[in-house]
Every structure is written in structure tokens, then in C-alpha cells.
Specification:
The protein is α+β, with helices and mostly antiparallel strands. The strands form four sheets. It has a six-stranded mixed beta sheet with strand order 1-5-6-4-3-2, with helices on one face. It has a two-stranded antiparallel sheet with strand order 7-8. The protein has two domains: 3-107, Phosphorylase Kinase, domain 1 (2-Layer Sandwich); 125-295, Transferase(Phosphotransferase) domain 1 (Transferase(Phosphotransferase), domain 1, Orthogonal Bundle), CATH 1.10.510.10. The protein is 28% helix and 18% strand. 36% of the residues are buried. It has helices spanning 56-67, 71-78, 137-142, 150-169, 228-243, 254-257, 264-273, 284-293; strands at residues 7-9, 17-21, 25-30, 42-47, 84-89, 100-106, 113-117, 123-127, 172-173, 182-185, 191-194, 201-202. It starts with 6 loop residues before the first strand and ends in a 13-residue tail after the last helix. InterPro entries: Kinase-like_dom_sf, Prot_kinase_dom. One of its GO terms (molecular function) is protein serine/threonine kinase activity. This is Serine/threonine protein kinase.
Length: 306
Amino acid sequence: MKWQSVAVERQWLGRVDLLSRGGQAVVYRLPEFGLPEVGVPLVYKEYRSIVGRVPAQGLANIIALQLALPADQRLWFDTHLAWPLRIVVDSDADSARAKVLGVVMRLIPDAFFQVSPTATGRSERRPSEARSLFAGPEQMRALGLPFPDRAQRWWLCLRLAYLVAFLHNQGIVFGDISARNVLYRLRPTPDVLLVDCDAVRKVGNAAVVDQGHTPDFFPPVIHEPQSISSDLFKLGLFIVRILAPGRTVTPESATRAVEDALDRTGMDLVRASLSADPSARPAALAWYRYLRSGAGSHPRTLPLGE
């Protein structure tokens, strides 16, 4: 796929409404722009100058990964990953001199947002970042958030493991699996959504948008690059932190944190996932199969089905 086939000029987007500002990008809602094959509202993620020059063809290759999926898989994919749909450029979309400004993506569904009080007593609507799940019950209630029970936490881990396994099966490294890049919902059923998907990469290719390791999710190997193995380390640590809320969980304390939540097989998965040897880390599919079996969870809180 040539990048020109998925490029749109900035002026074509029409009016933009500010949604959020981040360190690397500003996100705008697009009330006047739509795509015929996408029946949901869209947003424009505009890169800040700190991101540097972004290769258009690299982004087109990421977009092509989604388009190559069978229709049924693509539908599931679109509801679990905030994937880039178009490249936004500053000038003639057919010109080799066009500069990438950002990407068009689906608007995050309302179910992945939460409303919580601010210090001034006002309510604020913000994405349901998974870092909330790491907090204890008192802290979550102080934020006005429901504290997920054991069954819901188990289910969220299951869904995240499946999602990472799916990406890895497609040869895709997610990279920055972190508390801010995983959103969650509890209703109608617990589920997760991965964001910042424009920074993923195909195995063997360089990342299009530079991505470092988020603090608190650094792999144990110094200067370990983003890879399938680093994804697996972060997945294991993520699962432990979801199942052991209210604790400060480090790779060194992880097994102690979940010794009452997991059986021997689960504990072995934790140890292997957090190994300093990248080749020893179990595949995400191993975590999915373990969680899917319900092993280690209370009999009354087993997952109910796929």
C-alpha cells in the first residue's frame, strides 16, 4: 500500500474541537469529517514537534495491517484497538514533499470513560486508564470509582492477555504496554482497549513513532528494546498489578503479591514473565489459556465464557 492512498490533507478535516492535550500529541474531535467505511465519530491526533518527522509510508504500513484482516476479525480489532485509519498531511496528499501532521482514528467509546470529582469538587470526564485498577478500594472510592471485584479483575486480565496474543500472532509488537495505554470498562462486561496504536511496529521493522518504556514498566535488561519479549514482561507485571490492588508491586515483589490469588501454575507464569532472560518469558497465549481455565480463581468467580 502506498501512503498516498490513505492520506488526507489537513484542510479536508473541517472544524476541529479540542478533546485533550498530551506530551506528544493533541487530540481533536472531527464533527464534520467522516469515512464511508467507518460508522463511528472520528478524532484527529496531531503530533507535537517533539515527535519529530514521522515517515508517511511507515504509518501506511501500520494502517495496512488492519486492512489485511478478514472482515470478522477486523470488526473485533476495531473495538479493542484505537488504530490509525488515515494519515493527515500538511499539503498535497500526492506530493512527496507532504509532511505528516498526525492521524485520524476512531473516537474512544463512552464506556471507556469515567467521571470523577476534582479537588475543587467539580466532576471531570477522563479516560478509564488501567492505573486506577492498581489502587486499593479506599483510593478508588475517593476518586468516585467502583472497585472491581475479583471476577471482574480476572476477566480484565483475560481480555488483555487475549489482545496481546492476537497482536503477537499477527507479528505486531505493541511496545508501550502501560497503565495509561490500556483503558478498561466494567459494564456491560469487563473489557480493555489499547490506545496509542500508531506507535506499534511489525516485527523486523523500526517503530514509526518513537516509544520508550514507561517508568514502572522497564524490563530488567538494561536498554532492552521494545519487542515481543518486552511486551510479555509488561503483560505479566500488568496482570499481577491488576490482581493485587493497593500494593506497590515491583518485579521483585510480584510473586509475593499474588501468592493468595494464583496457584502454582500461575505463580510459575509470573516468575517466567518477569525473568531477566527475554527468551524465558511465556507467550501471551499461555497466560490467556491459564486465565481462561479459571485456575487459581475462586469457584464462584470463574469467567463465564468468551
